Structure formats: C-alpha cells, structure tokens
Amino acid sequence: MSGARMRCGAAAVGIVFAASLVLTGCSILPSAPAATGGTAGPSGSQASDPTSGPTQIDAVQGFEGMPATFPVSDVPIIAGDIPFGIDLGTGWTVIVKVSDLTAAFTDAGDKLKAAGYTAQVEQAGDSGSFGDYLSDKYQVQVTAQNTQDYGPSVTYVVVLQG
Length: 162
Description:
Number of domains: 3
Helix content: 10-25%
Shape: globular
CATH architecture of the largest domain: 2-Layer Sandwich
Radius of gyration: 19 Å
Number of helices: 2
Order of helices and strands: HEEEEHEEEE
CATH topology of the largest domain: TATA-Binding Protein
Number of strands: 8
C-alpha cells in the first residue's frame, strides 16, 4: 500500500472518529477554567477536579437547573427538580426528576400538544416511554424512564428546526 493511500485511510478514520464523538455528545460540555482547578459550569459553580476520578454524577456538577437560554415560553416543561440542564448551542437537554413516570410522560405530552406541537410518535411502555413532538421552531424528544443516575425522570432533548 502506498504512503499516500495509507495517509488518506488514516485521515478518513480520524474524520469518522471525530464525527462520532461530536454526534454522540462527547466533549461538548461547555466549560471554562475555574480559579481553583477543575471546571466551572454555566452557573459558575465549581465541578470536581477531573484528575480525581469523578463519577458520572460528579462530571455534571455545575449543570444543575434550567439553562438560562432555554426557551421556556416556547417549550413547556413539567414541574419538578432539574438535576441536569445544558445549552448545546443548537439545542438543549433538560432532565426533570419525577415520582410517577406514566403521569409525568402524559403531562409532558399534553403540555407540548397544548402549546401547538404535533406528536410524531408517542410510545408508552413498562420500562419507559418516548415521544417526539414538532413545532415550526423546535423538535422536542421526551423520554420517561427510571435512570441509574437520577431515578425516575423525564428527559427533554430540544433541537432548533432548520
């Protein structure tokens, strides 16, 4: 195999690897150096030192609560504690802790439809539920499930249309 062909193959592998990281959300948490080491999240709170072996929950400290840029007037969210929320630039992810998954999923869908969203998919099941809702501005995916990190929770993934 020629050197040029080998370099092209290596470059293609690198591009595919980088694209897969971006598409799966790896390394896209916005952070800035904090004054005492570690990283500061969008709220300015101190996250744990990355060299100390953070757990999955430790890695998201500083991203609690509703992101300041979330379009609350356009995307209704169910009531509840928000242990994680992030603005990704082209959309947002928000997790709401709930006590009743079935009722919370129904409430989430009802609120979106009342706000003018069209349900593309609504699938409820014993192990979790999923809904995909569209408006002229946003696509909202709602998942209700019992998660390892947050327990029973509803996750909203909101993406700008167009």
